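Following the same procedure, sequence and fold were stored together, as reproduced here:

>
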Amino acid sequence: MFSLSDENRTMTLTDIPMRNAVSMLYVMRQELSGVYSMTELESLIQRTFKELLNMDRMALMLRPETPVDEQVLERFAEVIDRLKKEEPIQYIFGYTDFYGIHLDVKPGVLIPRPETEELVHWMLAEEQHRTGKTIRVLDIGTGSGCIATALAKKWNHAEVWATDVSDVALDLARKNARSNNMKIQFVKASILNGEPEHAGMFDIIVSNPPYVTRNQMPEMKRNVLDFEPHLALFAEGKDPLLFYRAIARYCQKHLKPDGSLYLEINEDLPADTTDLLGSFNFTETSVRKDLNGRYRMVKAAW
């Protein structure tokens, strides 16, 4: 078996001692244990076996000698090679699940995070009084369309708009909306330019904008830094609140008097974010922690 440190060596079928499921499990643990934590590795194993063999942990325990054909083994070898380079498994298999919906993902578009699912859940809980009413919702920087599609799915009475500056992201977001039978108005627009300018007024505006600072780059994992789009991750220039300032300014013209603004935020800047929103006449702001105890979400109202 080849060295774990040699990530550039292409894996071949001869590296898999036997053509069965338990042999695949052995190879996967041996080749990736030096790259991922035990928790991460077990998650990758579960996803890989589900995708390639349609086997969960129990099935693997009960039928370890399940034979595997050459085509599956070739795909398995490719998956291992890509995981050794720390490529996100969502890119490898081309999709992820987000708040109960299937979303395609691909390089060039940010992978939806569990924290963003928490933001959607918070929104749905907070805005229950709007249920059954015709409301207008704007998702700024939609990426894969995860927030817009999830909200449209839950609020079938809503008129949902979604914007992004990336053609790659918008193409994928449109595809995800179509595959989930959701009607969403997608617009190529830059919030830094105050766009979409003629979209009218909204009841709810939501955004997960770029907020990572360059100083935080050394703390980031390789699977994010090397593979996900920096355009969707990093705040431009030296102002980490650049996009929040632009969104707050946009809200002054486009958020209704009884409207709500929801934002995913930099965990190191909750006070700075709420202070900024206060300077734009938001009088009600609340900050919420994610399941890991980090300040990651803000709700604001006039």
